[in-house]
């Protein structure tokens, strides 16, 4: 496994400092990058582990903290935290994260992707609608879907991932999202995993984790990013 550098950092912005977790290959060569957006629990160890996994695959991986250090310990707290962040706020933070990466000498500025889970899937999808600097997006179980007018602005290819037992977005809604994107001429692929609930990728949540589906989704996500960020 290639050596990597992993650290908690602060990104300077007009609105103050943005906390983030950065993990990257230790070499100073230019690498593609991926922004990872956390679930509604916050920037917890699971997301840092995913960030490290991307770094081990040769990406500069950056996970910004949209909750400014807060961690939810219950669904009630998670709901309150996630409701406190609108897309205007997340777009500003993600624009700062993108600017940070594009100005690092070890990042290929034209090869930056984005991914996110649940709350993070929602905000990564919305950001992909408004930024033409994102080269590819892997969206895991986004819960609040953009309008068709916003989807029409997307310039990046998308991989959209859901379980068919997700109560927040029904299978027909996920299929409609894929259909809308394709009708708009956007390159989009839907992966729908049978018998999988919301958050099936989270290996630190024994109630929802589905190891076989998670492994398959991870491998297909890596292939997707390799095709669009490394090629």
Summarize the structure.
37% of the residues lie in helices and 26% in strands. The chain is α/β, with parallel strands linked by helices and 231 residues long.
Describe the structure.
About 35% of the residues lie in helices and about 25% in strands. With about 230 residues, it is of the alpha/beta class. The chain has one domain: Rossmann fold (3-Layer(aba) Sandwich), CATH 3.40.50. It has an eight-stranded mixed beta sheet, with helices on both faces. The radius of gyration is 16 Å and the shape is globular. The two termini are about 20 Å apart.
Number of domains: 1
**Mean pLDDT figure:** 96
Report the CATH superfamily.
Answer: Alpha/Beta hydrolase fold, catalytic domain
Counting DSSP H or I runs of 4 or more residues, the number of helices is 7
CATH class descriptor: Alpha Beta
Distance between the termini: 21 Å
Topology:
Elements: E1 4-13, E2 16-25, E3 31-37, H1 45-56, E4 60-64, H2 75-83, H3 87-102, E5 107-117, H4 119-130, E6 136-140, H5 148-151, E7 158-163, H6 171-183, E8 188-193, H7 211-230
Parallel strand pairs: 3-4, 3-5, 5-6, 6-7, 7-8
Antiparallel strand pairs: 1-2, 2-4
């Amino acid at each position: 496994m290639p050596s990597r550098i992993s650290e908690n950092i602060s990104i300077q912005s007009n609105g103050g400092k943005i906390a983030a977790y950065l993990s990257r290959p230790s070499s100073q060569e230019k690498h593609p990058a991926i922004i990872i957006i956390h679930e509604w629990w916050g920037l917890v160890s699971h997301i840092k582990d995913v960030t490290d996994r991307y770094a081990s695959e040769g990406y500069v991986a950056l996970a910004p903290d949209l909750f400014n250090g807060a961690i939810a310990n219950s669904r009630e707290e998670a709901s309150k935290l996630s409701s406190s962040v609108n897309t205007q706020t997340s777009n500003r933070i993600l624009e700062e994260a993108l600017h940070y990466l594009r100005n690092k000498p070890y990042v290929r500025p034209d090869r930056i992707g984005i991914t996110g889970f649940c709350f993070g899937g929602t905000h990564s999808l919305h950001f992909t609608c408004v930024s033409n600097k994102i080269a590819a997006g892997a969206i895991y179980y986004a819960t609040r879907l953009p309008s068709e007018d916003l989807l029409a602005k997307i310039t990046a290819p998308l991989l959209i991932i859901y379980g068919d037992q997700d109560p927040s977005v029904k299978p027909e809604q996920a299929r409609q999202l894929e259909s809308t994107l394709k009708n708009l001429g956007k390159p989009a692929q839907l992966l729908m995993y049978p018998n999988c609930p919301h958050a099936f990728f989270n290996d630190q949540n024994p109630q929802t984790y589905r190891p076989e589906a998670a492994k398959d989704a991870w491998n297909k996500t890596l292939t997707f990013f390799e095709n669009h960020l490394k090629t």
